[in-house]
Design goal:
Blueprint: H1 2-28, E1 30-34, E2 37-42, E3 45-50, E4 54-61, E5 67-74, E6 77-84, E7 88-94, E8 99-105, E9 109-112, H2 117-126, E10 130-133, H3 140-169, E11 171-174, E12 178-182, E13 188-191, E14 197-201, E15 208-215, E16 218-225, E17 229-236, E18 242-247, E19 250-254, H4 259-269
Parallel strand pairs: 7-9, 17-19
Antiparallel strand pairs: 1-2, 1-10, 2-3, 4-8, 5-6, 6-7, 8-9, 11-12, 12-13, 14-18, 15-16, 16-17, 18-19
Length: 274
């Protein structure tokens, strides 16, 4: 369970960071020409190109054989590592592929889409300070999809963290009058007076979850499992062996570390004949 949690958490954090970076970048992308060169603004990133590093600048229309190697692509937004037949490998920071300004440096080739490519080219050649927005394109649905995906991952992360906390806090307390099951937001209490029987068992088959959580290392909530008993409530870190506690038409399944010792102590507290 710990390995699953760590691995899932790492994937979730990476996905969240990438989505936030992409949305932030899409909303803030612009191209600044300065006397010293060119800066591409993309979220928290600044891609700076000194004037003496730029070896060639061209305006390309109708590029062919577009291939995305990695990055993001939806109508109105293209970012990441791409390639075209006319340019070869290229790093895109663009809102349109119809017309790209391709900037080649000693180390890399970049593709951008300023609103006015000709004005951008004149400013860059003259070293005149100017800011250029990317070509206006409606990328609302793509950004909305990213936002929904981000929300889903955040919710799943909260669920996973919650499950991990529950598993780490599960404990069974034999109080004076009640058995207390710790782990959830509220302790589960089972009065000894309501217990009709208790036994150790390893039921055959598998439980069917009605409501709750069932992942390796944590089974918490309402289940259907005929072999275990009616109206089963599981509060366990394993499925076998279980201490099964019958309370009339309700059954509780728990997994103390030492089932025999726990059952012996529980039996001392039950009404005579249970």
């Amino acid at each position: 369970m710990q390995g699953i949690f760590i691995g899932t958490a790492a994937i979730a954090i990476g996905a969240i960071a990438l989505m936030v970076y992409t949305i932030w970048g899409a909303l803030t992308m612009r191209y600044d020409v300065t006397p010293r060169g060119l800066t591409i603004h993309f979220g928290p990133s600044r891609i700076e190109m000194a004037r003496d590093e730029i070896t060639e600048v061209e305006i390309h229309a109708s590029l062919t054989r577009a291939r995305r190697r990695f990055g993001t692509a939806f109508p109105g937004f293209y970012q990441g590592r791409w390639s075209f037949a006319e340019t070869g490998p290229i790093s895109l920071y663009a809102t349109s592929l119809d017309t790209l300004v391709v900037i080649e440096t000693e180390r890399e080739r970049y593709g951008i889409s300023p609103e006015d490519p000709a004005a951008f080219l004149r400013a860059l050649e003259a070293g005149e300070p100017a800011q250029f927005s990317a070509v206006s394109r409606d990328a609302a649905w793509g950004l909305s999809a990213l936002g929904v995906g981000l929300l889903i991952i955040l919710l799943l992360s909260v669920v996973i963290v919650g499950q991990s906390r529950v598993r780490g806090r599960i404990a069974y307390e034999l109080g004076p009058d009640v058995l207390v099951i710790h782990g959830g937001l509220r302790p589960v209490t089972i009065p000894y007076a309501t217990i009709t029987s208790a036994r150790i068992d390893s039921p055959q088959g598998w439980p069917w979850k009605s409501f709750g959580t069932s992942v390796p290392g944590l089974h918490w909530g309402s289940f259907s499992w005929k072999q275990a008993g009616p109206n089963l409530k599981l509060y366990a870190t394993r499925l076998r062996p279980l201490v099964l506690i019958s309370c009339g038409r309700k059954t509780y399944g728990i997994s103390p570390e030492d089932p025999e010792a726990f059952l012996a102590e529980l039996q001392k507290r039950l009404p005579q004949g249970s």
